[in-house]
Amino acid sequence: MTITRKDFPDRFVFGVATSSFQIEGATREDGRGPSIWDTFCREPGRILDGTNGDAACDHYHRWAEDLDLIQSLGADAYRFSIAWPRIQPEGRGAVNPRGLDFYDRLVDGMLERGLKPYATLYHWDLPQTLQDAGGWANRDTAHRFAEYARLVAERLGDRVTSYATLNEPWCSSILSYQIGEHAPGLRNRKLALAAAHHLLVGHGEAVAAMRDALRDAELGIVLNLQPTYPASEKPEDVAAAHHADGTFNRWFLDPLFRGEYPQDIWEAYGADVPEVQPGDLACIARPLDFLGVNYYSRGVNSANGSVRPPDSAYTHMGWEVYPQGLTDLLVRLKEDYAAPPLFITENGAAYPDELTGDRVHDPERIRYFESHLEAVAQAVRHGVDVRGYFAWSLLDNFEWAWGYSRRFGLVYVDYASQRRVPKDSALWYQGLLTGQPEGVLLPATD
Ligand code: PNW
Q1: In testing the pocket of ligand 1, which one of 24, 125, 221, 224 has its CB within 8 Å of the most ligand atoms?
Q2: What ipTM did this prediction achieve?
Q3: How many domains does the chain have?
């Protein structure tokens, strides 16, 4: 059975997603300040292929062509992120007008093409100056973030009605300050938990600032959530899965939607727990208009660590393909958290694509999208309020610590020429979105 738009509610939004550092390039142009990812990329051994974001997909100059591509896919919407160091090169103080002008043009370009903008304010490119003062481990960064959010809302608020504050605070705290795989590359759990707390406080303060500046905007946050399953029914495996769920999912979901940190994990963290000031949890738990869910895979845990089921399929990231996990996750968000309306803000897969002639054959990616969209439709049939789906990603791009060695795009990027080649999965997505299965993907003309 093939999936169609009829499997989703009438106003369900289909789109594609990207992030600023991963596609823009032009890192020194028009007054942009350095970000922690510019710094991190220059440290030997941090990025698998030794690359950086200086050029990326050159989207900063090719944005109009890229918006044409999104339009020709038949998308309703585009999820993009705003680079804080373009708006405030040092993370504080007056705005850099040329930085805001870029997003102004981009948003106008979306509206001209009938695309609804979904903005994300922070997708990891923190101004380096703020890192020099401690980054997210310093509580002041939360206040700086709220100021930046207000500046963006004041300039774009007449045209952008949907804002996510943070993308994946687990990545910008635990993965960045404890595991050390993302910028700033530290290995210190206490700092990581301070960073996670300040990210959440910054989120809450940004929501307050934007509610004050905008009347009708929809405000939310994007979490990377990974349902965890025990490797067996043995109590020690069940406990391991519950613990993994606690550090990865509940540590963020509980403060946001219940106004408290999960007790079991709080105790397990011992002296590393963050300093919570009076009012913090009420600030973090401010009501939201939506929750964005980034879903890629599940976790399977035993008492001895994480487990890779041997009969499953895996992507080029080594992530298990497990669409049922997305249905389970969405149902749980409704039942356990009474979550606000949900968007799938990212879902997709990396495969080692190759350009053959003018085509890229990526049947596994098509299967991945199809099975996960079916999983979303199933959650909707269960009564979960899911409002939209954004494929990750429009373009192959800078995949963080993996550099350009992992390709998530619907559209192939030849980094030598910056040529864009829609993959078979792009043609498939276009067929789903337009209802014309044999659609031919051409840049839109008017
Ligand atoms: C997300 N992990 O990153 C990001 O939002 C995207 O920018 C990124 O390109 C995409 O997923 C694919 O990786 C993640 O280690 C990075 O669990 C790492 C993890 C999760 C999400």
Answers
A1: 224
A2: 0.92
A3: 1
